[in-house]
Amino acid sequence: MVYNFSAQQLLNFLLPVSCGLCNAPTNRRFPLCRPCQNELPVIINACPVCALPVTSAVPCGKCQQHQPAYNQVHALFLYQEPVKFLVQQFKFNRKLEYARLFSALIAEKIEILAEQPELIIPVPLHSSRLRKRGYNQAWELTKHLSRLTNIPIDHRVCSRAIKTPLQTGLKASERRHNLKQAFAITTDVKDRHICIVDDVMTTGSTLEAISSALKMAGAASVSGIVVARAIL
Ligand SMILES: [Zn+2]
Ligand SMILES: [Zn+2]
User: Fold this and answer.
1) How far apart are CA 216 and CA 211, in angstroms?
2) Which of 7, 55, 145, 198 has the most CB atoms lying inside 10 A of its own CB?
3) Which ligand has the shortest distance to the CA of 56?
4) Residue 84 CA to its chain's centroid (Å)
5) Which domains are present in the chain?
6) The dihedral formed by the CA atoms of 56, 58, 60 and 63, expressed in degrees to the nearest 10
7) Nearest ligand (C-alpha, residue 28)
8) pLDDT (tens digit, 9 = 90+) per residue, 48-86?
9) Are 78 and 43 in contact (CB under 8 A)?
């Protein structure tokens, strides 16, 4: 058997893992020590539909006015420091080891859900962006998550049919406009319970666009699970 380790992977394997936040050595497989993990900003009360922090257990005003195409979204943390730093390291700085950490935490969250998804899918990147970045962070999360939960993964379910401009800095209405028809459903999803995995949810327009495409293709339910929920 031929093992194809990069020098960095080999170093990661041989050296003790140190915490990405305080630099203390950890005896974990994740680059985050337990005390730093305990300090991460969890959402105490979340809207049961869109995961926005709320003061009571009922859906937020926005979800009451307009029911999104997805049934519900779960978020591990608020998208604020130091989660923002960890996610950006993972997403833009090739710190793929954070996928192990985030997916282990997502797996714990999924385990306690009343209904388990039948299938998990990553938010797709357009092929040209994938070539540029070299990896899709949502796929990295979903891959580990499937291994941990035994929930099947299928990255072919949804593809990005149109390359949309980067969504950063755009208003919710502009994001929605950009994402209309951006996703194509390419396998049979009829009557299936599907969970979409992503790193950050900001306005929710990406999850909304994919969920709406999945529902049009006959999916029974669509949920989302993300590492962090941003508040605009
Ligand atoms: Zn630490
Ligand atoms: Zn809501």
Assistant:
1) 8
2) 145
3) 2
4) 13
5) 1-39 (no CATH), 42-229 (3.40.50)
6) 170
7) 1
8) 999 999 988 899 999 999 999 999 999 999 999 999 999
9) yes
